[in-house]
Amino acid sequence: MKLVVGLGNPGVKYEHTRHNVGFMLLNAYAAVKFADGVVWLEENKFSSHVIRFGEVLLVKPQTFMNRSGEALSKLSSFYKIEFNDILVVHDDVDLKFGEVKLKKGSGSAGHHGVEDTISRLGSNDFWRLRVGVGRPEDARFDVEDYVLQGFSEADLTALKELFEKEVLVLIDNFVGHFLPVVGR
Questions:
Q1: Could you give the residue numbers annotated as active site?
Q2: What is the Cα–Cα distance from 127 to 103, expressed in whole angstroms?
Q3: Which residue in 52, 108, 157, 170 could disulfide with 115, CB within 3.0 to 4.6 Å?
Q4: Residues 66-95: tens digit of each pLDDT
């Protein structure tokens, strides 16, 4: 089984913020794959919204970013998912806006959601899809405030293009093309 986890914060307040890139990209992925409509199931025992399709779980933890590992560890333990079969999609201020990197086994680089995930899994030996949101132009601006700010319309358009050109392919390759487009 493959576990694809988008990191973010639940609620309308955070919906289009930089910190919610993981949620946004998983929503876009699910919308492409399930053309008839996306139905995220509320799985309270995992503190998550989940879509299961065959041997793939798409997951949006509802624990807030800094406790993302709580949901991920429950899911990976319940389904006995190996680290190599986990992909965590998240924002990264150390990458330029729109830059994407796929990496396995790295540290958190100060990202609290990844930090909590590493802590609760007891390992950093899982895959991460890091999506660049850039840093604030003014170095005096707090990064934690920056990631909780919304994207501009231009940035949202650029993210959509990035998803269509690169992220869709990376996630498809990770899950092994288990998710055909449904409903077209």
A1: 19
A2: 6
A3: 108
A4: 999 999 999 999 999 999 999 999 999 999
